[in-house]
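Hi P.,

Sorry for the delay on this. The queue was packed all week, but I finally got your sequence through. Input first:
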Amino acid sequence: MGSLFYRFISENFSAYIQGGDTSVVYAEMDDNKITSMPGIKRDAIKTKGYFIYPSQMFANVAANAKRNDSLNTDLAKIFSAIETSAVGHPSEHDIRGLFADFDTTSNRLGNTVKDKNARLAAVLKGVAQLDFGNFGDNQIDLFGDAYEFLISNYAANAGKSGGEFFTPQQVSKLIARLAMHGQSSINKIYDPACGSGSLLLQAKKQFEAHIIEDGFFGQELNHTTYNLARMNMFLHNVNYDKFNIQLGDTLIEPHFGDDKPFDAIVSNPPYSVKWIGSDDPTLINDERFAPAGVLAPKSKADFAFVLHALSYLSPRGRAAIVCFPGIFYRGGAEQKIRQFLVDNNYVESVIALASNLFFGTTISVSILVLSKHKTDTHTQFIDASGLFKKETNNNALLDKHIDEIMAVFDSKENIAHFAQSVTFEQVAANGYNLSVSSYIDAKDNREVIDIALLNADLKTTVAKINQLRKDIDAIVAEIEGEEQQA
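Then the structure:
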């Protein structure tokens, strides 16, 4: 994935320098000539966020890779130079450390320099042979889709950790549509546990016609995944000045306090992870958690993420959050937080999804949709657990399933065994239980038996059996008579 990104930023940079002039081939230019023209470097960093000399271009490095005895160290120097080019510029934060996880000197590549170079050369050759056509015509869809294909395949084979950094594209699409429903423009979109950025970018992919005025914001705890997210932004043509991805623990060290509120929030936070909770006495006074009057349990941080998202949500916005089902019916602190959400009319919808849609878990999760601009006090429940296509390893959500969910989410229509809008009083009377199964009866798919018809069939069958017995008795009697005569 690092090699694919290296090729992308090289070709992206080359396309910018050439400006559509096919007579100019940046990779063939001399480094010294570029050095003598400082304006090129300055303008490039201002626009693209980084700078690459011609000799550092992917095409040149890949072409000479097999013959380069110092390929591994040369690559390390190039990656360092690209990152260093942004130092002191507005793009510094977005470029710094991008290649940190692409260690070209690691012993994992081989025990000797020769072995390392051979493997690196093979990787560069493989990436170079990928046919992306003309970069200027195809850059974003092909590079971005190729990158997400690699990420999704890695996630599918990464076991339990797979779901920690990548949300399947179709589920991401549903979440993005829910968060942005009914809005032709939003100020910005935010994911407090962004993983590789797939949820944020699904919003861009599905809503190119919508205006996302101030860009894409996200925070990620894992350093490697944080780098994946930043690479993913560049690969989908989100320039450094249109995204802000931060590293750190969202619950303890939240970023973007000065950037809130957000009109759209999407999130698939880790399920039921431990957090410091009540062990930090200052958190109960944190503006994110104080309104609920209680902290999420130390062993289950799910509602801490929910309350964090709610506090960052604008008065006109929606948040769509993937949640572990247990938080909707358990007692204790979680029940008190549910009461706070319902009493303040923040819960617009709870949508139960099919099992085995996500990487690393087979459970049936739900999507919690929060809103600060509801026009009534009803809470909508949707049972979409039967909407999926069975595939080899995971179930899949199809476009037709997403359309079906969005149609009833929009209309708030009551549909037997599928959707039900429940009054505030009913939810309160039910102990603020927000589990979908508590309000929607599962459809009975058992075969309906007509007892009268069954009894008639039994009588006919019994009559046939009795007649058959008489016929058999007659045959036996006839045989016995013949034997006596003999």
